[in-house]
Amino acid sequence: MNIIFHEQFYRTYDADPAAAPGRMEPIIHTLKRFPHYAFINPKPAQPDDLLRTHSPDHIEHIQQTPTIYDIALLAAGGAIEAAQRAYANEPSFGCIRPPGHHASHASCWGFCFFNNMAISLLKLESEGKIESAVILDFDLHIGDGTLNILRGKNAFTIINPQGHTEKDYLEEISHALEEAGDADIIAASAGFDEYVRDWGGKLSITAYQKIGKMMKNFSESHCAGRRYALLEGGYCYEDLGIIIHAFCEGFK
Fold this sequence. Notes:
The protein is of the alpha/beta class. Helix content is about 45%, strand content about 10%. Helix 7 runs parallel beside helix 8 (about 205-220). The N and C termini lie close together (about 5 Å).
């Protein structure tokens, strides 16, 4: 399984929790202990990749802060790398930041700048590789930016589970996947802030492994095995490596 990562993602590029020092280190330290993960450096996204998703005014607004623009461009490129490798039947996890699912066509908030998920899927679509997709967003907060950009595409199914207990949450994902049917690819906006020691206070480590396994099973039954996930939220820094490893073990 591929882990898409660049050492630039260690940089503290802003003052928000997603950009904080010490967030990425435990993830990479944990995953590098396991030889079945292949680490791949991404390249920055290209201007056309951004313009499929965002307005020129929004892009220009982010460019006014060069440090953020550069790292957000690299995160978008990491999402594209994960998507391209997933399309080639290489399950991939984009260990990228800034996150992206709160970035809409012409605005952004919630520690996001460019919508990594939408950028990566629309790149595949522009190349004629996909016509349909299932997006599972299991972050604590609904990916309003992804909904804003992709909801007009009838062949793109977006799942935002809202169950109030771990049992209900997992059952909701299972049911939604059963209803989704065949698609060209499945992707996750993988937020880990529903964790029991994070803001959401709901999901165990085992639950994240189960989510990864559900996605793997769905992809093998309905998407020719094509699957990838992109890091969104997750702020219990000391446990992030353990949680993400659990997800990847189910997902790989």
